[in-house]
Structure formats: C-alpha cells, structure tokens
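Amidotransferase
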Amino acid sequence: MNGLSTVLIVVGLFLVGGIISFAKQQMPRSLIVLLSISAGLCLVAGVLRLEVWN
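Predicted structure tokens:
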C-alpha cells in the first residue's frame, strides 16, 4: 500500500464523517453534495492507486 493512496483513503473517510455530521446538523444541501463528490473522488483515487491493479 502506497503512502499517497493511504492518505487519499483516510481523507475520503474523514469527509464521509463530515457528510454524516453536516446532515445531522441540517446544513445546506449543496454543501453536503460538494462533500459527497469530494469524498467519492478521494476514495476512488486512493483505491485506484493501490498496487493491486498493476
């Protein structure tokens, strides 16, 4: 497991926690959508950078 892929996956999971927290606080829907997109991109980038795919 590469260092950068680990960082991307951890950041993605951190953003998923932010999505859950912001949804409970009734934050604006656009902010939750923006966090969802960024969390998804971080998780996908982290998974694709894993050494398994080579």
